[in-house]
Recover the amino acids of this structure.
């Protein structure tokens, strides 16, 4: 009988094993490094797999990526070639990411940090507020996560635009695409949200040259960056310098070049930075395992796996 | 020719006069106390009018309430009887209130204050997060504002219920009504949002006896109060005491018994209180005046005024 294995060295595996056993009661569920007989293993679910682990399963049929970004699997230099890799596309995870994006866009729009400072000083201080429709939120990356966040932001009243590799058609969202669309996209964006997949093309994309092209006409007094994509997409020295010289007004960051963020980073205590510990959209074992079990059931019935990673694009 | 007057002693009148002249270019627009000949005045728009001012206009035909709550007008002991009072029902104001409610529900749900504290200490500290669907938000008051907030919270994934004087039918929102429905409403509510109109029946309704009936089964560890209604609806000593003994976990307050909130109030520096200076939903002169001018144009054509206050209900 074929077995299933979790390869998640940086996570506690017990809740995952228990959730998978619940989602697929007849499955033989294991967790690396206690993999048992490697010939049994037909399916692996992974996050940051160590080199040579996935490779050691000779009868592996499919790999599931636990988490929205598949870069954590693709960076395994010994990744077995030719196997289908399924991206977890889970409504629960999508919803959590949209919560994060809507929350932090609203915090900037409603100037919550300014209100926090007034409260801390004991000062009753109102100020003129703008309408959501006076702000344009630009989302880089219009995949499942970006499209859901875009729809919810539009419903809250913001003007929303998106930028992606290829043009997308999302109701109420102005779409820009490719290198040739980037300038126009940035020039009209007041709050920039990054939800890009981590690929060679997006590495370091959030840098001074890009920030300098953002709109400076919005009612906040300067552009805002929200990065819930990947830390390798941002130049953290540029972010700090741009906050200092006014190229950026403020930033909310969930991801960092090095995680946990080193204590020496100037981001920790910058008054206009809100940072969260890579917690924008947690993978919840119950719903993720239900999704994985459903895909395996399809596959064993001879139906195609869904939501496959395109290895050429890298996401 | 008939004239229009603003009676807003606590607001700067210049932006309102200018917005109204733009919305109704042929109107003779004045601002108290420079009212000119009182016989000219056919329409008044007011917020906290001093006694005897509205009464002094012998040919007044209608009164417009600037702001969502009409209690600011009804408390005028010399309010002329028998005149139509129009409640401002403006999509811009509704949208701003929903921004505030969605923002503060999300801040509690995503434990933003805990994350703020970790950042201030320089500690990278994730924690288990729950899904929006694990929380039930209960909205007291399902008028225009409550219904819009309810729809947007449901769209974000929260379970939403509402309590109002009479049962309401809002898609995706469980409706409870009247004194007989209050217990069941509170027992299932994790985050309580107050958007009630200020009437004799709702005075002091947010007190210890009510907080004690809220759900204690939710994932946050205790119930949360968000009041964006009116300060006279809340017992502030009860709120502080309930935060201390665990009857409430946290509170976000936009309104207070006395505004500005006195420096002596313990709410200012309570670590689990977020307070804002009655700024949840500002009245924006441009959109409000366009609404008022539109109603006057209808009225002068012989059409009925819309959104009239029911003086018996008090809202």
């Amino acid at each position: 009988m074929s077995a299933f294995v979790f390869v998640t060295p940086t996570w506690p595996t017990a809740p995952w094993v228990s959730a998978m056993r619940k989602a697929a009661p007849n499955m033989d569920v294991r967790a690396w490094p206690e993999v048992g007989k490697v010939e049994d293993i037909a399916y692996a679910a992974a996050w940051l797999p160590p080199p040579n682990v996935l490779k050691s399963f000779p009868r592996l049929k499919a790999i599931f990526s636990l988490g929205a970004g598949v870069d954590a699997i693709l960076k395994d230099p010994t990744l077995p070639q030719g196997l289908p890799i399924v991206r977890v596309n889970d409504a629960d995870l999508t919803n959590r990411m949209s919560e994060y994006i809507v929350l932090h866009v609203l915090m900037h729009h409603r100037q919550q940090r300014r209100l926090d400072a007034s409260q801390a000083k004991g000062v009753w201080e109102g100020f003129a507020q703008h309408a959501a429709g006076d702000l344009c939120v630009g989302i880089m990356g219009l995949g499942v996560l970006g499209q859901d966040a875009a729809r919810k932001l539009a419903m809250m009243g913001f003007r929303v635009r998106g930028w992606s590799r290829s043009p997308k058609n999302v109701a109420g969202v102005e779409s820009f695409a490719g290198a040739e669309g980037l300038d126009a996209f940035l020039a009209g964006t007041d709050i920039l949200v990054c939800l890009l997949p981590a690929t060679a093309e997006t590495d370091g994309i959030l840098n001074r040259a890009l920030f300098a092209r953002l709109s400076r006409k919005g009612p906040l007094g300067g552009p805002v960056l929200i990065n819930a994509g990947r830390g390798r997409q941002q130049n953290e020295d540029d972010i700090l310098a741009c906050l200092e010289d006014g190229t950026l007004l403020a930033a909310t960051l969930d991801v960092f070049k090095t995680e946990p963020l080193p204590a020496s980073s100037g981001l920790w205590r910058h008054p206009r930075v809100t940072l969260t510990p890579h917690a924008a959209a947690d993978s919840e074992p119950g719903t993720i395992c239900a999704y994985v079990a459903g895909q395996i059931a399809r596959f064993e019935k001879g139906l195609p796996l869904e939501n496959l990673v395109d290895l050429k694009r890298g996401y």
